[in-house]
Design goal:
lyase, 3-dehydroquinate dehydratase activity, DHquinase_II_CS, five-stranded parallel sheet, Rossmann fold, aromatic amino acid biosynthesis
């Protein structure tokens, strides 16, 4: 059985490819999911890809990941800067957590420079576009004994 990597996406990422393409690019979330699924398979992992605009849904998925996921890749989007609740949920997860941001948040507004999620993350990837998800998957694979 393949180890599961939970790939979680926060608010507005359902609009990827449509919303501010000058910042986030033209790829859709479906494109990112397809690339992650293909790479996970290549790495001997299974990707479970989810998106919600609701903080509680993300927290519920993090809690559920405690049961069967080997690692979490999370792009919390705007919740990065506001959600102590997501931080607390991630602290209850024992596997590796990699935080992903499509844009370089450090080149943007000052409020985006602080991440609650980073207090738990084992790694942070920012500014690599959607390729950041693939880099995160490769890192999780190394940390959980995949390829």
């Amino acid at each position: 059985m393949r180890k599961i990597v939970e790939i979680l996406n926060g608010p507005n990422l359902n609009l990827l490819g449509q919303r501010q393409p000058e910042i986030y690019g033209h790829e859709t979330l479906a494109d990112v999911e397809a690339a992650c699924t293909a790479l996970a398979t290549e790495l001997g992992l299974a990707a479970r890809f989810r998106q919600s605009n609701h903080e509680g849904a993300l927290i519920d998925w993090i809690h559920a990941a405690r049961e069967d996921a080997a690692g979490i890749v999370i792009n919390p989007a705007a919740f990065t800067h506001t959600s102590v609740a997501i931080l607390d949920a991630l602290k209850a997860f024992d596997g590796p957590v990699i935080e992903v941001h499509i844009s370089n948040v450090h080149q943007r507004e000052a409020f985006r420079h602080h991440s609650y999620v980073s207090l738990r993350a084992d790694g942070v990837i920012a500014g690599c576009g959607t390729q950041g998800y693939l880099l995160a998957l490769r890192r999780v694979a190394q940390l959980v004994g995949g390829a």
